[in-house]
Design goal:
vWA_BatA_type; three-stranded antiparallel sheet; 24% strand; vWFA_dom_sf; 2 domains; transmembrane
Length: 331
């Protein structure tokens, strides 16, 4: 606690410390005065006075030290030592965001490092960490869709659920319409003025109970903006098989559908062909969708002069008590 105090203490009137020059003057005056004192009682020998009143003599020296310390403490108190406690209040209007991630088998393709799904998870987590005032949720889809995490401001919960995402959690396939519809469902009762879905996929819609166009129209009607990301390189890509053997599979991506969904809802379509491109896409979305945040700073000043003032008073009181009791001089 003392270390914290020393690290955070400031002085309102630091110029008062110039008065510390009085301390060496007091010592100089004491030494000079002691040298000028002369005994007025003449004795033939001091042999009988040896060892007499040594305690009182030493105590008299202590009184001077007490007075010097008292003056030093008073000077520190007059400099007004202070501690400043600063608090920040964050207010503003956040955005409700659903991260809609494709977890179909093709997301294990290794044209990204280490593969598409892990690259997508890493960038999604980084995106979450850079948006502290927004509510976020996670929806995954393959042959069907599922809400991994409803809207929340709990960053650790969101990141934990993103880390748990992996292919094979759902029936295989690519149900883009179902994924988007589930994301819209998560946002429909949100009171937020800004609601967006970031939909990431590497395939063509081939399953699900809801057509992507229908899901798009619902999102548009509810004022939900959809950013779509097509992930994957063109041509044949390496994909690990169930037996551990890597095979070359032809990539397929319905860019026309993804562009239509984005443009109809007021969002944008992006194509990511490598890790750096995917990172750039999330940074671009982060720049486009800014939350309105106000930070108000409050500073409270605590005066800390009283311990020094009390210490000085205590030392002066001890000096006075000793001077009029043990060290009292009789005429």
């Amino acid at each position: 606690m003392i270390l914290y105090w020393l690290q955070h203490i400031t002085f309102a009137w630091p110029w008062v410390f110039t008065l510390m020059a009085l301390l060496p003057l007091m010592i100089w005056w004491r030494i000079g005065r002691k040298g000028k004192l002369r005994a007025t009682l003449q004795v033939s020998s001091t042999r009988h006075f040896k060892g007499v009143s040594t305690f009182k003599t030493a105590l008299a020296q202590v009184l001077f030290v007490l007075r010097v310390l008292a003056v030093a403490f008073l000077i520190v108190a007059l400099a007004r030592p202070q501690i400043h406690n600063t608090q920040q209040q964050v207010t503003g209007e956040g955005i409700d965001i659903i991260l809609c991630i494709d977890v179909s088998g093709s997301m294990t393709s290794e044209d990204f490092s280490p593969n598409r799904i892990e690259a997508a998870k890493r960038e999604a987590i980084d995106f979450v960490q850079h948006r502290p005032t927004d509510r976020m949720g996670v929806v995954i889809f393959s042959g069907e869709s599922f809400t991994m995490c409803p809207l929340t401001t709990d960053r650790s919960a969101i990141i934990g659920q993103i880390n748990a995402v992996r292919p094979g959690l759902l029936e295989d396939g690519t149900a883009i319409g179902s994924g988007l519809a589930t994301s819209v469902e998560r946002l429909k009762n949100s009171p937020s003025k800004s609601k967006i879905v970031i939909l990431l996929t590497d395939g063509v819609n081939n399953s699900g109970l809801i057509d992507p166009i229908t899901a798009k129209e619902i999102a548009k009607a509810m004022g939900i903006k959809v950013y779509t990301i097509g992930i994957g390189t063109e041509g044949y890509v390496p994909m690990p098989g169930p037996d551990g053997q890597t095979t070359q599979e032809k990539a397929g991506l319905d860019e026309k559908l993804l562009k239509d969904i984005a443009s109809s809802t007021g969002g944008q379509y992006y194509r990511a062909t490598d890790n750096a491109g995917l990172d750039s896409i999330y940074k671009s979305i982060d720049t486009l969708e800014k939350s309105k945040v106000e930070v108000t700073t409050y500073t409270r000043t605590i005066e800390e002069y009283w311990p020094f003032a009390l210490a000085a008073m205590a030392l002066l009181l001890i000096d006075m008590l000793l001077r009029y009791t043990l060290l009292r001089k009789f005429p």
